Structures are given as C-alpha cells and as structure tokens.
C-alpha cells in the first residue's frame, strides 16, 4: 500500500490558450495542484466561477490532454476552482472533471471521502465504486466513501462532466497531514455486483444476517458509522424537495432544504467531514445569517444572487460559488432556484464548535 500522496512529475503541456483561460478564471488543473497541498489561506473571500468560464477551461483541457497522458497518481482530468492555495476552500475541494467518449479514469482509492454530482451525464457514463457500476445521469449524486476503489468509464458517445467534491484540503491543508493513496493494478476494477446492489441494501430493509458494526474500511479508525457507496437519484430527491415545499415551512436562511443523509444512519452528515443539501428557493430573499463553517454552492437550476457582506454573487445554472466563514450572507433567487449546498459544518459540530447567528439590525 502506498502511504503517501501520489507523485506528479513534469507539468503537461497545455496550449497557451487553455493556460490563459485557466489563469484568467482562477482555475488550475488538478495534476498541478496536488503537489502544492499543505497550506491554508488566512482570509478567504467570497467568490464565484461562472459556468461559461469553467466550460471553456474544461474544453481546453480535454482538447490538450488525454487522460492516458496524465502522470501516474491521480489520473483525473479536472479543473479546480482556486480560492485557497489549492482548492476552493481550506476544507472542501471542488473540481470539474471530464471523461471523453471511450475513455477511462483509472481505478484508485484513497483516504479522502469523495462524491460525484453529475452535471452532464448519461446512463452509459458510469462511475464504478466498490464493485458496482453506477450510471451517472444528470444531477445524480454518487458517493465514493474513503478507501473504496473507484474508476470512471465513459461508454457513451458524449463527453461527460461532473462535480467532484472531496475533503482533501481538510486533511492535507488545514491539518497539514498526509493522504493515504493506492492505485489499482487494473485500469478498470472488476465489476462484482449487480447494478442497484448498494442502493437495495439501505432504506426499507437492511441485511438481517449481517448487522453493520459501522466499521470503517481500510487502515483507518474512528467512531462514525461508515458511509456506503450510494447513488441518490435526482428524480427522487427533487420529488422529496417538492413535497417539502408543498407541505412544510421553509428554513429562513436556506429555503426548503433536504439533507443527503448517510444511508447507514438515516441522518446527516453524509460524510463525517462534509454535509450536503438540496435547497429549493422560491419565496423571495432568505434572511441573513453568518456562521463559522464554510459553504460552497453549485447552482442546479435557476438564477439569482447570494449577497455576502457587501458583495452580490450573481449566479445562473451550473455556476459554483463559495461563502467563506463568518461572512453575513443571504440568498435572493430571481424566481425559483435549486442549489446544491455543501459545507464543512460537521467538522465544527464534531467538536461542539459550530456557531451561527444573525446580524443585529
Ligand atoms: Fe479518487
Ligand atoms: Fe449559511
């Protein structure tokens, strides 16, 4: 087993066009970020990445670099929004990954928890996790819990794109610790489970003969119930969100909000380090608040603005933005909008350190 993060070697040649798009929009290719990890930013500010800028960057990277040419290690073709030295925040990493038709992002596993949120996918774009092929259809969220093998296989005839979200900077930057990482001996791990297996074992029934002891895979120890590999299909999530909007009152700060739960516990957080919510905003501006946790947002649909301090982050579909710790913020949708909200709040809550308040008017 490799006990360190992968080595990346010489920088790959990106065309000057692609290089300047990346620099102009505060994006970096993943394979250039990895080696730099280990530093934090003291005073992160609110920021937004517009989808059209992300799109031109990932198109350029896809044009310039086949996955097979990437250095050994994280063989992933990813543009990384940068607002801390090596990620969008000091705790949560977001990247936008593409896999071209016929390509495979080879199998590996690591200590960081990860998930995929599909931006542009299809049933023939599959992320293979723990022996099962999970189809990546638009807005599906699929977990890659720590130390599970995972590869991404595009058997469709269109390029697929998705959001990767990992807790990498929490360990590598904020704790200045090491990543545990291993490449699979095969490019594609063997598919050993039928499709739907992992999904079928959580929810209305659990295996009766094998009680989960919550043990954590790999060489890790902890006291949290491990998160299983799992696909949250978007149709079901959206239906649950709409049922909330029909029947419940919205949260004053986050609208109608539905947490992605750890299927093993039925509760937040999805991972011990990161929590995720689908948020429906359709009743005008939310009330302002501030907290010590960071929030990262992906716009699933709709347009609007999030006001952070004196700044208005104007967003549209597929934009990514970040609300740094302790900044007063509220959301203002133009009409109806759906956001994916991501936060490191579970880290604060684990130590009874989470704090939230409203500004005095
Ligand atoms: Fe990975
Ligand atoms: Fe907030």
List the helices and strands and how they pair.
Elements: H1 16-24, E1 27-29, H2 30-33, E2 47-49, H3 51-64, E3 78-81, E4 93-99, E5 104-110, E6 114-120, E7 122-129, E8 132-136, E9 141-144, E10 150-154, E11 160-166, H4 168-174, E12 181-183, H5 197-200, E13 231-232, H6 234-247, E14 256-259, E15 275-281, E16 290-291, E17 295-301, E18 304-308, E19 311-315, E20 320-323, E21 329-333, E22 337-343, H7 345-350, E23 356-357
Antiparallel strand pairs: 1-3, 2-20, 3-4, 4-11, 5-10, 5-12, 6-9, 6-11, 7-8, 7-10, 9-13, 14-15, 15-22, 16-23, 17-20, 17-22, 18-19, 18-21
The structure holds fe (ii) ion (2 copies).
One fe (ii) ion binds at residues 253, 289, 291, 295, 329.
Quick gist of this model?
This is Cupin domain-containing protein. The protein is an alpha+beta fold and 361 residues long. It contains seven helices and 23 strands.
| Unreliably modeled segments | 1-9
Largest sheet data: 7 strands, antiparallel
CATH superfamily of the largest domain: Jelly Rolls
Strand order of the largest sheet: 1-3-4-11-6-9-13
Mean pLDDT across all residues, rounded?
A: 93
Strand pairing plus helix content: what structural class? alpha+beta
Bound molecules: fe (ii) ion
Strand content: 25-35%
**Between the first and last Cα atoms, what is the distance in angstroms?**
56 Å
CATH architecture of the largest domain: Sandwich
Radius of gyration: 20 Å
Oligomer: single chain
The H-and-E topology, N to C, reads as: HEHEHEEEEEEEEEHEHEHEEEEEEEEEHE
- CATH topology tier name of the largest domain: Jelly Rolls
Helix percent band: 10-25%
CATH C-level of the largest domain: Mainly Beta
Protein name: Cupin domain-containing protein
Region (Disordered): 192-229
Keywords: Dioxygenase, Oxidoreductase
Domain Cupin type-1: 239-359
């Amino acid at each position: 087993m490799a006990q360190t993060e992968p080595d990346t070697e010489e920088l790959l040649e990106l065309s000057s066009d692609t290089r300047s798009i990346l620099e102009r929009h505060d994006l970096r290719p993943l394979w250039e970020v990895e080696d730099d990890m280990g530093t934090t930013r003291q005073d992160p500010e609110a920021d937004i990445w517009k989808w059209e800028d992300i799109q031109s960057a990932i198109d350029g990277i896809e044009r310039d670099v086949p996955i097979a040419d990437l250095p050994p290690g994280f063989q992933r073709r990813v543009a990384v929004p940068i607002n801390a030295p090596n990620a969008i925040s000091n705790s949560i990493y977001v990247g936008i990954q593409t896999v071209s038709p016929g390509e495979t992002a080879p199998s590996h596993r690591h200590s960081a928890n990860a998930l995929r949120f599909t931006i542009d996918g299809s049933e023939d774009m599959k992320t293979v996790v723990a022996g099962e092929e999970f189809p990546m259809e638009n807005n599906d969220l699929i977990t890659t819990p720590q130390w599970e093998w995972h590869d991404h296989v595009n058997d469709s005839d269109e390029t697929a794109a998705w959001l990767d979200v990992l807790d990498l900077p929490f360990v590598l930057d904020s704790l200045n610790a090491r990543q545990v990482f291993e490449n699979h001996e095969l490019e594609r791990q063997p598919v050993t489970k039928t499709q739907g297996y992992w999904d079928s074992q959580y929810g209305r029934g659990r295996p009766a003969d094998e009680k989960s002891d919550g043990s954590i895979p790999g060489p890790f120890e902890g006291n949290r119930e491990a998160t299983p590999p799992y696909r949250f299909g978007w149709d079901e999530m959206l239906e649950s969100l709409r049922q909330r909007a029909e029947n419940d009152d919205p949260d004053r700060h986050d609208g109608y909000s539905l947490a992605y739960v750890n299927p093993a516990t039925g509760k937040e957080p999805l991972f011990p380090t990161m929590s995720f919510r689908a948020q429906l905003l359709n009743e005008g501006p939310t009330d302002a608040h501030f907290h010590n946790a960071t929030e990262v947002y992906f716009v699933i649909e709709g347009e609007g603005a999030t006001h952070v301090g004196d700044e208005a982050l104007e967003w549209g579909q597929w934009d990514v933005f970040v609300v740094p710790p302790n900044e007063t913020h509220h959301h203002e949708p133009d009409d109806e909008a759906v956001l994916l909200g991501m936060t490191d709040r579970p880290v604060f809550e684990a130590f009874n350190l989470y704090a939230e308040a409203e500004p005095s008017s």
